Amino acid sequence: MAGLDKQGQSYLGYVDLYGTYLTADFVTTGFSRYLCGHIINTQWSKEASLETTLSVLEQCFKALFVKNCAARQEMAVVVIDAQGIRTDAKK
Fold first, then answer.
1. What is the rounded distance in angstroms from the CA atom of residue 36 to the CA atom of residue 57?
2. Which of 25, 65, 68, 77 pairs as cysteine with 88 (C-beta 3.0–4.6 A)?
3. Residue 21, domain extent
4. What's the CATH code of the domain at 26?
């Protein structure tokens, strides 16, 4: 779940398969939990620009592709901010 809370602050929530509700600055699931956590923790912050964020996401997808070459080499990005929800072009 993502969006803006009643105070206009960004919000990201996650419910795991056991029903545990979590909020965080970023969420990784599946295999990306093992490969991307370090990349995100060292190269991204909540105050990062959209360009920096997309660069970090691209690095994560490259790391995932190296481990799973059968995966597709493109990603779709959805941006949620005060201006609304928009889908950026696939890379």
1. 9
2. 77
3. 2-88
4. 3.60.20.10
Burial degree of 18 (CB within 10 A; 0-12, 13-18, 19+): exposed
**DSSP at 50:** H
Cα–Cα–Cα angle for 82, 7, 77, rounded to 5 degrees: 35
pTM of the model: 0.76
Chain-centre distance for alpha carbon 33: 11
Other Cβ atoms closer than 10 A to 23: 11
What residue type is 9 in one-letter code? Q
Residues ≥6 apart with Cβ < 8 Å to 71: 64, 65
